[in-house]
Amino acid sequence: MPEPSGPFSVSPEDEAGAVRRMTDKELIRLFEIDRLPTESFHHADHVHLAFAYLSEHPMFEALSRFSGALKRFAAARGKSDLYHETITWAYFFLIRERMAALSDATWEQFADCNSDLLTWKRGILSRYYEDTTLQSELARKVFLMPDRFISPPVELRPQRR
Predict the structure, then answer these.
(1) DSSP character for 14?
(2) Which of helix, strand or coil describes residue 11?
(3) What is the pLDDT of residues 99-120, one digit of tens each?
(4) pTM of this structure
(5) Three-class DSSP labels, 5-52
(6) E strand or H helix at 60, and its extent?
C-alpha cells in the first residue's frame, strides 16, 4: 500500500518527537480554522478532506461544513471564483457512495481502491457530465444533475420477476 502524501499525511511531532498521522478530526479542525498548508492543496487533498468529513459527520452535515470551509479557504486567498459547486458536490456524492461499499476503510485503503477519484484532469466526472456543462457559470454556482447517461451497475438494476 502506498504511503499517503501531500500536506495532510502527517501532523507535527508529538511530545516524544515522533511524527504521526493526522486524525480526521485534526484535519477538519485545521482546515476550518485555515491552518493547513496551502502551497500544495491539490485535487487528491480535496478528496482526502471530503473523506475525513464524511468519516466524522452525516452526509449533508459533512457536505455543508466542507463546502462552507472550502469557500472560506478560497476567499481567504483571493480565489473565490475557483469554488465550483457542481464539481464539489458530485465528488462528495461519489466519495460517499464508494465509502459505503468499503465500510470502515481507512483513508489509505480508500485511496488505494479508488484511484479514479484522485485523478483531476479528465477524471471521473467526464463520465457523468458534458464539458460544456461543467464549464458553465450555472454549474459553478449551483449543483447540476449529471447530463450524461451512465448505466447503473448490474447489482443496482431492477430485477425481473
Answers:
(1) -
(2) strand
(3) 999 989 999 999 999 999 999 8
(4) 0.81
(5) CCCCCCEEECCCCCEECCCHHHHHHHHHCCCCCCCCCCHHHHHHHHHH
(6) helix 59-76
